[in-house]
Amino acid sequence: MTPKYIRLALLVDLFMTHILCQECNLLEVHLDMSTSENLMLLTNLSNSIPVQCFREIHNFELPEEILSSTQPEKTNIKYVFYETYTQAINIFSQNTFNSSWDEEQLVQLQSNLYEQVEYLKQCWGKENKEKEDVKADEKKHSEAGVLPLGNLKLRRYFSRIYNFLKDKTYSRCAWEIVRVEITRYFLYLKKFITLHTRK
């Protein structure tokens, strides 16, 4: 598939997100389409990584095992996506002045990630109201979006990205390397949610 048709497919996903995914019972569809939208925005931030940045490429140790399960539980999916969106907002709200990215695309990415965090919070609220036997502490954790202990690897992954940016003083090359890395991560997310939706 050529890049032209890939972008067209992503635009269709973006359009369908707003039509089909207003209800929480379509959570998996929403997450799949929002991941496609994030990929499109990340791609549009910059054309390519400059050649001079190749020597700074870093291994952030993506915790692939978190996204490799073919039978993920629905709750775990919510936690993974909530943590992902929250951490991505934190990263893309840092000192981006050296990035030379398209400002409009960056603002759209930030806005999109924030909307997805709010969507998940709304779904947790609805889910908790429907479950009479939800314990008070579980409800508190769900609404706060706290990760289960086993998923702390994901938080550490994003911490490594943040530290890399800081160590490189938010240079243009550092931002390009981070953009490519987070794009790669969202590709894993896309595969993860697709596997779950087929179950």
Order of helices and strands: HHHHHHH
Largest sheet: none
Mean pLDDT: 77
Record field, number of beta strands: 0
The SS-based structural class is mainly alpha
Counted by DSSP, the helix tally is: 7
Radius of gyration equals 17 Å
Shape: globular
> How far apart, in Å, are the first and last alpha carbons?
26 Å
Share in helix: 55-70%
The low-confidence runs, each spanning 5 or more residues with pLDDT under 50, are: 16-21, 140-147
What's this model, at a glance?
The protein has helices spanning 3-20, 27-45, 74-92, 103-130, 136-144, 152-167, 172-197. By secondary structure, it is mainly α.
Key words describing this protein structure:
mainly alpha; 199 residues
Give a verbal description of the structure:
The protein has 199 residues and is mainly α. It has seven helices and no strands. It has helices spanning 3-20, 27-45, 74-92, 103-130, 136-144, 152-167, 172-197. α3 packs antiparallel against α4 and α3 (74-92) packs parallel to α6 (152-167). The longest helix is centred in the middle third of the chain and has 28 residues, at 103-130. The radius of gyration is 17 Å and the shape is globular. The two termini are 26 Å apart. The model is unreliable at 16-21 and 140-147 (pLDDT under 50).
